[in-house]
Specification:
single chain, alpha/beta, three-stranded antiparallel β-sheet, 12 helices, 8 strands, 45% helix
Length: 311
């Protein structure tokens, strides 16, 4: 006897549409769970003694309740005393991209942006700050302060940057799951931006330096007492940094001052910068690119939109 699917659905008290919607919801849930596992792995690596319940309140997933989170992550082996057969999931569920920037020669803003996440502790609570920096001018183009490690903060920082500045040719970061988040990578790709990732902290040195600068030169002196104060002081620090803090590496300009200076220079007269993994960017004012490229051609790739002279 043949039984049609419609008859079968009617027999069990459901519909084809309901079944289809169920599988779509499961697909979305599985994708969110994979992302959350990446974030949980990174949190545990940074704070090895963080228990599962505290992990929930730090990550604050909006699709999973506390009890379900604890049950799922206990089953995944996130107890503080992990079972020996626990399988790491960070690398299998997170995206990887090659490091595209080390040794590259650039001569303008919005060629390379770097981003990183840092934490700031107030009492027993940890908060997180995302910065995106234009490597050439040192301008902080986007930022966000958050009370959790979810990718939404990175998305807000990136959208802020893209609203105010031209999209970069390359976006570089570490391999944190927030930067492999599909919404984040899709947004960059939609703007024609190439994605680059480093394997170690030194590969992301420009962004790491901004983390230290904002924390050590501003926040540690102001000593915010609450999350609200922290957000206000990060806003103030970024404004002070971009508009008032002079840099030896950019000829004692402020970042925004240097940005406005170089965009008005003819392309051949713009200072060239070589990107180094340890973050030591060397810039040289020159009226002749021929001599400069003769010195750097063997150790550096050229930015696709830079004026190139073969030597």
């Amino acid at each position: 006897m043949k039984v049609s699917l419609n008859n079968l659905y009617e027999l069990v008290g459901t519909t084809k549409q309901a079944v289809s919607q169920y599988f779509k919801r499961r697909e979305v849930f599985n994708g969110q769970l994979k992302q959350l596992i990446c974030e949980a792995e990174e949190l545990r690596a940074e704070h090895p003694g963080c228990g599962v319940e505290k992990m929930y309140y730090t990550l604050k997933p909006d699709f999973l309740g506390r009890d379900s989170f604890i049950e799922v992550f206990m089953q995944l082996g996130f107890r503080l005393k992990k079972s020996k057969n626990f399988i790491r999931t960070t690398y299998s569920t997170c995206y990887k991209y090659q490091n595209l920037i080390t040794g590259m020669v650039i001569n303008g803003a919005n060629k390379i942006w770097q981003s990183d996440i840092t934490y700031y502790r107030i009492g027993d609570d940890f908060y997180y700050i995302v910065f995106i920096i234009d490597v050439y001018t040192k301008v902080i183009v986007g930022y966000q302060t958050s009370d959790n490690l979810r990718a939404e903060a990175n998305m807000k920082a990136l959208k802020m940057a893209l609203k105010q500045y031209e999209a970069p040719q390359i976006h570089h970061s570490d391999r944190g799951s927030q930067y492999g988040y599909k919404g984040y990578t899709d947004l960059l790709i939609g703007y024609g931006t190439s994605i680059s990732m480093g394997e170690i902290a030194q590969d992301n040195a420009y962004a790491e330096r901004i983390n230290r600068t904002i924390k050590e030169e501003y926040l540690d002196y102001w000593k915010p007492k609450s999350f609200k104060e922290l957000k206000e002081q990060v806003f103030k620090a970024v404004n002070q940094y971009n508009t008032k803090r002079q840099h030896d590496g950019i000829f004692k300009y402020t970042p925004l001052g240097y940005y406005n200076y170089v965009i008005n220079l003819p392309l051949p007269n713009r200072p060239m910068a070589t990107i180094y993994a340890e973050g030591q960017k060397k810039i040289e004012l020159t009226s002749s690119q021929l001599n400069l490229f003769a010195q750097q051609a063997l150790q550096a790739r050229n930015c696709p939109n830079c004026l190139i002279i073969n030597v």
